[in-house]
Design goal:
Blueprint: E1 5-16, E2 19-30, E3 34-38, H1 45-52, E4 60-65, E5 68-69, H2 74-78, E6 81-84, H3 96-104, H4 111-124, H5 140-151, E7 158-162, H6 170-185, E8 189-193, H7 197-203, E9 206-211, E10 214-219, H8 221-228, E11 232-237, H9 240-248, E12 252-256, E13 259-264, H10 267-277, E14 283-287, H11 290-298
Parallel strand pairs: 3-8, 3-9, 6-7, 7-8
Antiparallel strand pairs: 1-2, 1-4, 4-5, 9-10, 11-13, 11-14, 12-13
Helix pairs in contact: 3-4, 8-11
Length: 304
């Protein structure tokens, strides 16, 4: 099967004065996949996405989008992009329909083509009945769906989303996920950044975890979980006798406050061993998640 790379980054670097925001990262995004950038605040993920969008020039390295250099072909690249920013930057003086119609003019569409596409998009994001409403009257979920519709006005081959479901309630978030899954099935390549690890695990075919401007790991969500955590986590109280048991058994564990997390791919065996060898008051087991990988790699200290 022939694989087409939509984005190719090689030793990509971006600095702001003495601050190195993106420090020599390399990655590829293949046609038709959902690719995620994860990382704590200040990790460099949004900066990397802005370079892909051709709105923030790189300082060093190589970056191709649709086999075109971002430095020399920004207009050609932007014609093929759709962008959902983190903020809902809709025009409050326009209705839902007028927001989309005004945006279509950036792409030199005829009025007839624009109106046809807008009707299709309003149906796609389930906003047909709100077309004549002012944007300020919309709920947060409706605004995010309208921003998504706006990003699709030019039928983009690559969709870039920065925190696409931030601030949404569970129902609105799942509706947005359904729309993104539908776009993937239509062959749209999607690049996103999110702080919702459940969202990344559900949507992304592959992802990178960044910190301090560098890529820590890259891979499929389930493969990263198995590699860095195992399939499950057994949690026990932080007691010296438990740590002694774990050290004796060469178990992989982490002390987190008054709890101990034991990483395992055989939770029944681990639980049986601890119950047999240690005096425990409480022990639980659960499936490992992408959030466990994220916290293990980037730490648990709050970032501002």
């Amino acid at each position: 099967m022939f694989i087409v790379s939509i984005i190719v980054a090689e030793k990509l670097q971006k600095s702001f004065g003495k601050l190195i925001a993106v420090d020599g990262v390399s990655f590829t995004v293949e046609e038709g996949e959902v690719f995620g950038f994860l990382g704590p605040n200040g990790a460099g993920k949004t900066t990397a996405m802005k370079m892909i969008q051709c709105v923030s020039p790189k300082n060093a390295g190589r970056l191709l989008v649709f086999d075109m250099e971002v430095d020399t072909h920004p207009r050609e690249i932007k014609k093929l992009l759709g962008v959902v920013p983190q903020e809902n930057n809709l025009d409050p003086d326009f209705t839902v329909y007028e927001n989309l119609l005004a945006y279509s003019r950036y792409f030199d569409m005829s009025r007839q083509d624009a109106e046809r596409i807008i009707d299709e998009l309003l149906e796609f994001v389930q906003l047909e009945e709100k077309k004549e409403k002012m944007t300020e009257s919309l709920s947060g979920g409706m605004k995010r769906r309208l921003v998504l519709a706006r990003a699709l006005i030019n039928r983009p081959q690559l969709l870039i989303l920065d925190e696409p479901t931030v601030g949404l309630d569970p129902q609105a978030r799942h509706l947005m996920w359904d729309k993104l899954k539908s776009l993937k099935l239509q062959g749209v390549t999607i690049v996103l950044t999110t702080h919702y690890l459940e969202e990344a695990a559900y949507l992304c075919d592959r992802l990178v975890v960044m910190d301090h401007g560098r890529i820590l790991v890259e891979g499929k969500p389930d493969e990263l979980i198995r590699k860095y955590i195992g399939t499950d986590i057994v949690e026990a109280e932080n007691e010296p006798i438990v740590i002694a048991c774990l050290e004796k058994n060469n178990a992989m564990y982490e002390v987190i406050g008054d709890m101990i997390q034991i990483y395992t791919s055989d939770p029944q065996k681990t639980t049986d061993y601890l119950l047999k060898e240690c005096t425990l008051r409480k022990i639980t087991a659960r499936s490992a998640t992408l959030e466990d990988v994220f916290l293990k790699l980037t730490g648990r200290k709050l970032r501002e």
